[in-house]
Amino acid sequence: MSLVVAETLTTNPPVAERSPGELLPVGRRFRLVLLLGFLTALGPLTIDMYLPSLPTITADLHASAAAVQLTLTGTLAGLAVGQLIVGPLSDALGRRLPLLAGIGVHVLASALCVFAPGLAALGTLRVLQGLGAAAASVVAMAVVRDLFSGLAAARLFSRLMLVVGVAPILAPTIGGQVLRLTQWRGVFVVLCAAGLAILVATAVALPETLPGNRRRSGGLGGTVRDYGRLFTDRVYVGLILVSGLAMAALIAYVSGSSFVFQDEFGMSQQQFAVVFAGGAVGLIGATQLNVRLLRRFTPQRILSGALLAGVVAGAVMLVLASTHTGGLAGVLVPLWTVLAMVGLAMPNAPAIALSRHGEAAGTAAALLGAVQFGVGALAAPLVGVLGVGAVAMAIVVFGGMAAASLALWLVVRPRRLPVEAVEPAVAVAH
């Protein structure tokens, strides 16, 4: 199964020619991208499907809202730590083996969540779920970098962000429907089934995209050296900070929205799922708009403009929520604007960052993903500590976007970034 892709990768076509991924037959390339979409969806499904049940879990397990939100933090922490482990392993062993093992852990943890006797056990198992889902996330990004570069990679990341947008639409909706038929534990039955389906599809359809002659075998010392080299790249470090802080704004919305819209605004679980879907529509639309914008603008220009607009929208949301102006619309309109700006920012930051480290794509993708979910893990309980209300959510959303913008301009300095650093394959993109 791996031979076709491995042979393609070892040909090392010139930059001006088609990328390795584009040399695959159309049908095979379509199936590969479709599978990458399913892998990308596993993390968002794991995070978002049980969101409508958070108030129910709070009551059923006799816990506080902040304590229940820590189960979300545990998932994000697992996603962060898991990527740091799986990324280097995928650079050393190839993409398939660590990926299959990780999804297997996710399936097992999901099954055990069904029988969790209390909040502590549920939180621990959610960490394991995150560890397993991390393999899907980091390997999907590494496969993209194995096969594509430059603007072609940015466009494919935009397509995968479509999945990241669709998954939050489907996940709370599915979770809400499951709650109509059974209790919150049924959500984890569905997650277990989804993970098992993705595991089978991966085993059957995913080719090995990292040939043996490109694998890294430096052991633990080599992994440490790889991470050390990444930390010496100021632009890369700045970009992963941008990604992490933008993710914090998104996770603040994810962790606080069920309490804000169900408790503060009195929505039902199904109404909340519809509102949550509205935000995801904005995210989806922005990621697909990004594909068109890349025909006229560089990734760093789009990233800069998106973060600036996100800061403004976040500030408006904070002012309106603090003054109780505009009611539900006063929260939703600026919030959905922020989500759209995150949708523009998120494909471009990884594309620029990973284009600088193709020799260690798995490790570079792992560190980027770990920072994203690690910072997000801090944002989730922060909303609860500040009060689990619209104002608390707005503070963290605005703070994340403002900090991301500062990191971009003070650390990355996009105006000084050479076009060649993000545009090594202009011909590939067309």
TrEMBL record:
Q: Indicate the transmembrane segments per the record.
A: 32-51, 63-87, 99-121, 127-144, 156-174, 186-206, 235-260, 272-291, 303-321, 327-348, 360-380, 386-412
For membrane topology, the record states: Multi-pass membrane protein
Give the domain of life.
Bacteria
The protein's matches in CDD domains, at most eight in alphabetical order, are given as: MFS_MdfA_MDR_like
Q: Which UniProt keywords apply?
A: Cell membrane, Membrane, Transmembrane, Transmembrane helix, Transport
Listed PANTHER family = MAJOR FACILITATOR SUPERFAMILY, POLYAMINE TRANSPORTER 2-RELATED
* Name under which the protein is recorded: Multidrug effflux MFS transporter
